[in-house]
Amino acid sequence: MENTPLLMLGLPKGSLQDSTIKLFGKAGFNISVSSRSYRPSIDDEELDGRFVRAQEVSRYVEHGYFDCGLTGQDWVRENDSDVVEVCSLVYSRASNKRSKWIIAVPAASPVQTVKDLEGKRIATEVVNITRQYLKDNGVNAEVEFSWGATEVKVPDLVDAIVDLTETGNSIRANNLRIVDTLLYTNTVLIANKAAWENPAKRKKIESIAMLLQAALEANSKVGLKLNIEKSKLNDVLADLPALRNPTINRLTDEAWVAIDTIIDEKVVREIIPELKKRGAEGIIEYPLNKVVF
Amino acid sequence: MENTPLLMLGLPKGSLQDSTIKLFGKAGFNISVSSRSYRPSIDDEELDGRFVRAQEVSRYVEHGYFDCGLTGQDWVRENDSDVVEVCSLVYSRASNKRSKWIIAVPAASPVQTVKDLEGKRIATEVVNITRQYLKDNGVNAEVEFSWGATEVKVPDLVDAIVDLTETGNSIRANNLRIVDTLLYTNTVLIANKAAWENPAKRKKIESIAMLLQAALEANSKVGLKLNIEKSKLNDVLADLPALRNPTINRLTDEAWVAIDTIIDEKVVREIIPELKKRGAEGIIEYPLNKVVF
Amino acid sequence: MENTPLLMLGLPKGSLQDSTIKLFGKAGFNISVSSRSYRPSIDDEELDGRFVRAQEVSRYVEHGYFDCGLTGQDWVRENDSDVVEVCSLVYSRASNKRSKWIIAVPAASPVQTVKDLEGKRIATEVVNITRQYLKDNGVNAEVEFSWGATEVKVPDLVDAIVDLTETGNSIRANNLRIVDTLLYTNTVLIANKAAWENPAKRKKIESIAMLLQAALEANSKVGLKLNIEKSKLNDVLADLPALRNPTINRLTDEAWVAIDTIIDEKVVREIIPELKKRGAEGIIEYPLNKVVF
Amino acid sequence: MENTPLLMLGLPKGSLQDSTIKLFGKAGFNISVSSRSYRPSIDDEELDGRFVRAQEVSRYVEHGYFDCGLTGQDWVRENDSDVVEVCSLVYSRASNKRSKWIIAVPAASPVQTVKDLEGKRIATEVVNITRQYLKDNGVNAEVEFSWGATEVKVPDLVDAIVDLTETGNSIRANNLRIVDTLLYTNTVLIANKAAWENPAKRKKIESIAMLLQAALEANSKVGLKLNIEKSKLNDVLADLPALRNPTINRLTDEAWVAIDTIIDEKVVREIIPELKKRGAEGIIEYPLNKVVF
Amino acid sequence: MENTPLLMLGLPKGSLQDSTIKLFGKAGFNISVSSRSYRPSIDDEELDGRFVRAQEVSRYVEHGYFDCGLTGQDWVRENDSDVVEVCSLVYSRASNKRSKWIIAVPAASPVQTVKDLEGKRIATEVVNITRQYLKDNGVNAEVEFSWGATEVKVPDLVDAIVDLTETGNSIRANNLRIVDTLLYTNTVLIANKAAWENPAKRKKIESIAMLLQAALEANSKVGLKLNIEKSKLNDVLADLPALRNPTINRLTDEAWVAIDTIIDEKVVREIIPELKKRGAEGIIEYPLNKVVF
Amino acid sequence: MENTPLLMLGLPKGSLQDSTIKLFGKAGFNISVSSRSYRPSIDDEELDGRFVRAQEVSRYVEHGYFDCGLTGQDWVRENDSDVVEVCSLVYSRASNKRSKWIIAVPAASPVQTVKDLEGKRIATEVVNITRQYLKDNGVNAEVEFSWGATEVKVPDLVDAIVDLTETGNSIRANNLRIVDTLLYTNTVLIANKAAWENPAKRKKIESIAMLLQAALEANSKVGLKLNIEKSKLNDVLADLPALRNPTINRLTDEAWVAIDTIIDEKVVREIIPELKKRGAEGIIEYPLNKVVF
Questions:
Q1: Which H/E stretch holds residue F157?
Q2: Do C53 and E148 count as a contact with CB atoms less than 8 A apart?
């Protein structure tokens, strides 16, 4: 009764679920899920999908149950999954900060470098990454799997932890010290190798990648329009490189031109006062849904 | 102290209240209500309004207490109200699905067609619509008024129900089977007949109708701008009819033009990859508040 | 470790806190506060700030702890603070209603005018403003400070109250009658006198003022685009002064032009029906983030 | 697969639902309902039940779908149902206040007595009770069915309302005046006439009635224990009839006795100070789950 | 229409409101308030009451609007109210900790004793208490009224604060150091002096005091029953003084006795294992509502 | 500054956390946790504790970091921990249902017995228990660790799952069929082997066990008192064995006796009507906090 969809997507359940649905929505794909369900409804006949734990997405992309999926680079590596990494998707480009897996010890611990972990006990959710890291550093230590809340286990239960941190707040709140960084990670779109070789599937995956990136790009950009005297135009464009390649239109008053361009939202608060000082008029900033350069 | 407003609006209380306030807001009329109040404040001196149950709006429009009002077509018909139907307002054009009143029986019931309801007992919130439907089909059955939660009354309390359904979820959840559809319904703007003959009132009602429709239209449309080589312009416009009649501006680089147009949000995910493939640059999508073609 | 910021901002805690954070965000400054904290984090190295009660901002701006601050005109006057009023910031320009301090009595009270308050007892949060008002009217009355919930104190505890009201709802709900209005008030940006004489600080304060006003201005403005026959252009512009100085572009169909302009959101509901009547096509309204004329 | 239960109970959905489930729980019957369901699960194999609107319970008890049910006396009368009223169950005996249906008009209305309603329009949820009341008073008036929120309909939509009130708060909040009381009402346990004649069913209904009443009784009763000199015992029992038939135990100190009894919670605040004055010691009050005299 | 009640109670609005209503309920007086109302309904015809800010209760008790009231000792003293303090009511006897007003400075401040505050600026909600304290210590300092959130005002806005603390958490969270304690405080029942001289009113106030204290006492006590061999009774009572004066009953088995007594909840976890070891059987602990020794 | 506590407790974080805190509270130990903390505060100087994931409690009890702990029997076995099982604690004795780990397949799967799993893929959170079970049955199958939401993985991702179920609701909701039960489980109190050999620690662990069991026992028991004619006593006790060994007191009326006993709450609804029929008077049921037989 149902058609077979072209692509099966693996979507990350849990902390990334809401932001993933929102990102797809902005990209033009409406994903709706009833609570407790893992089978979403997607308004594109070529797509079907499932929500599974982020930790498990790459396993099922590799096995071919999913044609492509969203997950963290960290879990692709922890699972040692043989998949194609299509593109990175840093959900919040404004901060431009990626999360990282770090090895941490109590602030007062004698451990200063990875070498000092010889013979110690380490708790982590990423047992394989941690074991490889220790091996690369020629260190023997006991690595035990942690079911979560890893940061509270030192110093009582273990000597060190390998945990994920974005802002470092949790590290500081538990009075820990970072010894080393094992891995930077962000969300990635990955594809099954056979699906990537299939032209129809690959074209669809690339379209999805472009639209997701266009939606992310628009988060940190705004549109800016203004009118300025034609005689001042060249100086303004030379002095304000943030304005990039604007669309320039003639106005009925031939001495003035209208500029329409896309700029980083972060520089607006510098640019507007400067433009006003140089005599710009009718300056407006407007929001964007998608940007593709 | 207060002026007499030109128009008195009847607004639907309950499940439609929030979406109605939002729609009027997008159309340019800010309606504010304190909780538990039924007297909203509207920022247009020509308008006053009241929130009443959707079931009762048409009654008070007919009697002239309201000059116009928003309600469902179903309740206009159930009340047999003698009013002018100004326009339909399908709140969610994306789905394009209207609600419908259906007659349903338990999945295992022997009833297969309306004829099989002869002598049966039927519960519904729309007694008049149901009686007329049975009469039209030459069926004698007992119709009783239901205070709500009608769908749980079969099979214990009655033999069949006439109930409203949008998605059919409630029908399935209660293990019912639809026998027939009595009526499709959506929200309508209705007017009192005398008010409609009064030129000043009619002009105002028509303005409101146009603005509500413009706001609804914008829900499914977006603005799209892009730059493309002038030499490719004709082919693009010919191959992508969704771009419709775009505004085309010359740029400082004479070999390129800037396109600005309005398209269905649903086709953006097809159009952007295609435009990119044909060499378009600086593609942006921006949101709209109102659209009037 | 931290640089000394150029400017210290006084921000109003309490009912204005969320809307102030939102306004600064729209102006381009992201203020984040952990709950219960009064030290916000601001993403501009030149700025630091503190949240204090709106009642106290002007006191600390005058004393020089803050270089500038946001508060109500009422509290500047109640505190009799010697500060520079940089600009008004009416958060909700749409309603254009400012709050006011009124003197109210029970609906059934014999008090009709301020003169009838001779010898009575009055509770209020603004003792100084109230005393000055009574003095200006030659009335002797006992004014007592109220910790809040002033409106429920009459008639049991006092004879009259001086209280803040925006919509009058609370006045009506407590069955009170307004005798007189003492003061209209809205939010203002104020500066310390010495800071205002410091060129670097003054330039920064003026930038902030411009961007806050640009963000507020955008709340009540929208972008409007439309196509119209060139032959009708002059009449339309002459008859609809709200369209102001539009950007006018030629279209591929030489008989038509495209208009792009900024107008008050309040007039859109008048303008669109009029434009449609005059043959305009492709009318769209789009949202704005900032507007600087 | 399921046995046919001995009794089918009609339970009131809506505002009474939670307190009904709690009362049955205290009586020893655990009723669990999944949200949105009307088929509860009851931990007694002899019982099955359904939640329906309180307005409809008596109708279905009369028809025999339910053997017994809980509903308001008002709805039994509005529906003119021919059923057995087994016992009253005043859920909150502490206040001893029953709800009442009153006729109300705007505070400023000229209507002073029921006679002044001649020719007026009245909105109510209890059309039959209202019509009978008017007829009994020889008044002709138009009675229209109201879907709810009746109290906001005067004076714009109707001249008077007949509405339910417990505390009168809503009446005052809407600035209404009560003209007359039509009916006092409380919850009742009712039985189908045939079920009542069936000995097995009647025995079960009487057990349920006893346990519900025992649980309600315990709401307003507490246990009281105290020690008192034997010589004062007779005077205390004579002067404090509220102590009723206490259990009296000898203590190791032969000059004292221990008293254990059940009293109205309402009189505890009178009794304890009196007992203390007469030299009682070790006075304790303890809570009860059920009381059967 | 309403009777004049014997006593008018002043009840504390705000943070103490819910616990006060609960305490009166346990004492036998049901107080109900609709949200936003300050006129409660009390189920005792001799009582009426009002909820006002705790800071203002003693003022209106002194003036005679209230006959008695609940408030903090601190506010009685801050207001310098001439009232009778009937009894203390430490709401949480388990912790036995009273709140205190302390003077605090930043952890790094040079201020070590009250003497070091000479010439400093201090913010507080209790201006009078603070001024008296400074005068008693021969210190001149500027005391300013704080509208709240006092703890965040140092060191930026003032040099020191006088603030209320129960656990010291807020002091620590703001990195402050306590210099001195000005005042310990707990809730008190206070009476108007004239009311206290009126025998009928005084008797009622004393009854209320006894019942409130009995309810508080029961929070930390439980009932304990057990059976034990008569031959072991004396040793058990000698070794376990916590059992106090139990009621001892003979059982049908003459070799055993039943004990019923009241003990501190805190010692139950020591007593039960000890009793079990000594051969006690049928040990049960039951809850209490009120205890008067 | 802090004393070393006698015992360190391991407490289960997550779904069992709130009910564990409540159970300890009823047993007489108040455990308070600030949000996000894993170090609770316990009002017993001999105790300290930590909240860790239930899956990890037995590992750290075995290693000696905890002296005793609460966890599920399933995790003791999955971790193959060498600890002492002190007692079972079925949190909800009323239902008397323990949770169980079952192996389930899609309703339509050809798998009928464990033998049919040969060569299949199975997802589970209990990899060791599952591997042992398969080995015991001579079956070779691939077992993969599941991070959660295991029940939605069949049939798409794996052939079968081993998952925990209490009511079977989730099994039915996902249209699965149970093939076999691997393990019944409930909460247990476990002790470290060395701690159990230490007399002081063992005594404390046994006290905690007794008090936790006493609190659990009281959940399903109530106190029952009644008066009955002495002549009927023997028959009543013979016919109603649920009354067990009651305390029987003589009353002032020598023909009657007072009975006080503890019975299962479940039988109250049968016993009370029966007692009433036999002439019992003054029947009351009262609640219990703890019961030790």
A1: none
A2: yes
E13 contacts on C by Cβ (under 8 Å): 149
CB contact under 8 A, D65 and B157: yes
Q: Is any Cβ of chain E less than 8 angstroms from the Cβ of C194?
A: no
The yes-or-no verdict on residue E1 having pLDDT over 50 is: no
Considering only CB atoms, which chain C residues are within 8 Å of A273? 206-207, 210-211
CB contact under 8 A, D285 and E289: yes
Q: What is the pLDDT of residue D15?
A: 79
Q: What is the C-alpha end-to-end distance of chain E, expressed in Å?
A: 41
Is E65 touching C (CB cutoff 8 A)? Answer: yes
Contact at CB, B292 and C284, closer than 8 angstroms = yes
Sign for the pseudo-dihedral over CA of C196, C197, C201, C202: positive
Give the side-chain half-sphere CA count within 13 A for B98: 16
Classify strands E99-106 and D7-13 as parallel, antiparallel or unpaired: unpaired
Give the CATH number, domain containing residue C257.
Answer: 3.30.70.120
Same structural domain for residues C171 and C153?
A: yes
CB A118 within 8 A of CB A139: yes
Could you tell me the maximum CA-CA distance found in chain D, to the nearest angstrom? 79
Q: Residues for chain E: how many in total?
A: 293
Look at residue C2 and tell me if it is in a domain. no
> pLDDT tier at F95 (50, 70, 90 boundaries)?
very low
Q: Which residue of F has its CA nearest to E256?
A: F247
Q: Number of structural domains, chain F?
A: 3
**How many Å is the maximal CA-CA distance in chain C?**
79
Whether residue F214 lies within 8 A of chain E, CB to CB, comes out as yes
In contact, D20 and D70? CB cutoff 8 Å = yes
Q: Do F149 and A55 touch (CB under 8 A)?
A: no
Chains D and E touch (3+ CB pairs under 8 A): yes
E268 by DSSP, 3-state: which?
A: helix
B17 vs B66: CA distance, rounded Å: 17
Q: Find chain A residues with C-beta within 8 A of B265's C-beta.
A: 28
A1 assigned to some structural domain: no
Which among D38, D55, D60 is the nearest to B152, CB-wise? D38
DSSP B82-116: --EEEEE--S-TTT-PPEEEEEEEETT-S--SGGG
On whether any CB of chain E is under 8 Å from the CB of D269, the answer is yes
B36 vs C: CB within 8 A: no
Mean pLDDT of F162-190: 91
Domain span holding position E254: 221-286
Q: What is the pLDDT of residue C91?
A: 67
Rg (CA), chain B: 25
Count of CB atoms within 10 A of residue C177's CB?
Answer: 15
**Higher pLDDT, residue E245 or F159:** F159
Answer yes or no: is the ipTM higher than 0.90: no
Q: Which of B265, B273, B282 sits opposite A210 (nearest CB)?
A: B273
* CA distance linking residue C151 with residue B37, whole number of Å: 20
The CATH number that applies at residue A68 is 3.40.190.10
Residue B260, pLDDT above cutoff 50? yes
Please state, in angstroms and rounded to a whole number, the distance separating the CA atoms of residues F149 and F259: 53
Say whether D284 and E249 touch across the interface (CB within 8 A): no
- pLDDT classification of D174: cutoffs 50, 70, 90: confident
Residues C57 and C192 in one domain: yes
Mean pLDDT computed over every residue of chain A: 90
Which one, of D235, D226, D291, lies nearest residue D264 by Cα? D291
Q: What is the reported pLDDT for F114?
A: 96
Q: Are residues F72 and F18 in the same domain?
A: yes
Task: Give the angle E155-E160-E165 at the CA atoms, nearest 5°.
Answer: 105
Q: What is the pTM of this model?
A: 0.80
Range name among A139-153, A212-226, E92-106, F23-37 with the lowest pLDDT average: E92-106
Residue B147 in contact with partner chain A when CB distance is under 8 A:
no
Residue type at C75 in one-letter notation: W
